[in-house]
Amino acid sequence: MSADAARPVRVLTVAGSDSGGGAGIQADLKTMLALGTHGMSVIAAVTAQNSLGVHGAWELPVEAVRAQYRSVVDDIGVQAVKTGMLASPELVECVAELLAGTDAPVVVDPVGVSKHGDALLAASALDAVRTKLLPTATVATPNLDEVAQLTGVRVESESEMRRAAAAVLAFGPQWVVIKGGHLGSGGSVTGTEISDAGAGGSVPRGPGSGSAEAVDLLTDGTEEHWLRAPRHDNRHTHGTGCTLASAIAAQLAKGQSVPEAVRAAKEYVTGAIAAGFALGDGIGPVDHGWRFRAVGADSPARP
To answer: How far apart are CA 156 and CA 159, in angstroms?
Structure first.
């Protein structure tokens, strides 16, 4: 076996550090490991964070971010890149420039606020996300709050999700996942069932549609994939967005198509949310290692 053939699939995250271990760089690396890939990191910001919220955040200098990125990409190489918290317009522009020169799929999670409602992106950075970062994305994964931040489109129903997707796609990503988990409920959810329709087709409806069901829309403006699943009654969902984006990146790095990667990522996140656990006095994290625990210590986990 050649040295290249023996190398693991390599995925890079460019994001912020979560000292509580539930989101950010820590969630990304756990997800990448759980899905059978080698995770690498560029830390763009450091947060003081726990189950109760974000208590401080400090962005790293642009030079430090660029040096980390070049060190990894130029020597080790990457097969997919995921971005998360980038905090400032200078960091967004720096990372966008680096991504534009990297031949690998890119998943952009346009992180705006934390699970607790703490701002993680300066208002002045929104234009750089729109004009510099989103055009580099193979897949963008905004939630409804981030859609509103970026486009001004406020989604109150499934029928408005196409308009939101079109507004995000206008900034240049190849695909977008509009995460509709908050529609009809403040709870956290995920979807695993995918049905397809043409761009002009009707919105597929499943049994139990409404507040008891989560629906996400994956589209490139032509293909549509509607992802549905029941809501999980579990408040411990810290890191859901980071985990989904990292899981998509890991599957893309393994050679899957975008719809295949999103399907597999959602299946993984579904289990992670269902197994989310209490940690501290606030909102606990999803369980990134749920598959390892599900199969037992003596059996290999399915990537």
So the answer is: 8
d(CA 162, CA 167): 9
**pTM of the model as a whole:** 0.88
**Residue given tokens 């208590």 in the structure block:** 55
The answer to whether the CB of 247 falls within 8 A of the CB of 35 is yes
Are 27 and 237 within 8 A, CB to CB?
Answer: no
- State the catalytic residue, choosing from 82, 179, 254, 266: 179
Q: Is 239 a catalytic residue?
A: yes
Residue 20 phi/psi, 5° resolution?
-80, -10
Render pLDDT for 19-49 as a digit per residue (tens, 0 to 9).
999 999 999 999 999 999 999 999 999 999 9
Identity at 60, one-letter amino acid code: L
Count of other CB atoms within 10 angstroms of residue 156: 9
Of the residues 237, 243, 254, 284, only one is catalytic, namely 237
Tell me which of 141, 151, 240, 270 is the catalytic residue.
240
- Answer yes or no: are the C-beta atoms of 91 and 124 closer than 8 Å: no
Q: Is 241 an active-site residue?
A: yes
Q: At what angle do helices 240-253 and 258-274 cross, to 10 degrees?
A: 140
